[in-house]
Amino acid sequence: MRVGSCANVDEYPDPHPPHLHALQSRSHDHDCLKRVPVGHLLPMGEGKQRNAFAWSLRLIRNATTEDFPAILALNAESVHFLSPLDAVRLRHLHAQAAYHRLVEHDGNVAAFLLALREGADYDSPSYRWFAQQYPRFLYIDRIVVAGVARGLGFGAQLYDDLIAFATATNATRLTAEFDVEPPNPVSATFHRRYGFREVGTQWIGGRKKQVSLQARELGD
Fold first, then answer.
1. Whole-number Å distance between alpha carbons of 84 and 153
2. pLDDT for the residue numbered 80
3. Do the bridges between strand 138-145 and strand 173-181 make them parallel or antiparallel, or are there none, so unpaired?
4. pTM for the complete prediction?
């Protein structure tokens, strides 16, 4: 079974889009909240220009069990990049996670990121590969942005928040994976711009998919 991946992280070309500016932030611990006004492009339509802005409140917060239906729906939307996820497995991953946070946009879950530290009870081939290579790491199991929210910078905002969390909790490196066969060029570009580098590859799912195993040292 396909487990662990970085899906449609974000299609914005810059991991730090200029139209996102933090208004409020409390310490970068696991319970911090950030509220950011998001100026996003309106869909093309009659009488609308692509450079028109719609302002709304975006909230990054910890995921709770009440968010599970929305998280499962987002995972199903991008399951071709991820592993299937049901309520039982999500509860297990949530309990194991060092970081499980989401973007709430206009009252809806628009994106989520789940990451685990070393020592977790997890059967992911990629997680186990990293566990054999590194004594300490923070593994990005999956990040998903809703199709209707792509291009708004939510993937980048979650990665920025994760890096702050990792630094504050003394993680030495971030690890992740993305598909190279079949290719996922959006994820490859995104991770390259965040300073990740390939440290290995492996075939998974009965050799139906090849993944690039990526790491970023937090001093980089």
1. 25
2. 74
3. parallel
4. 0.77
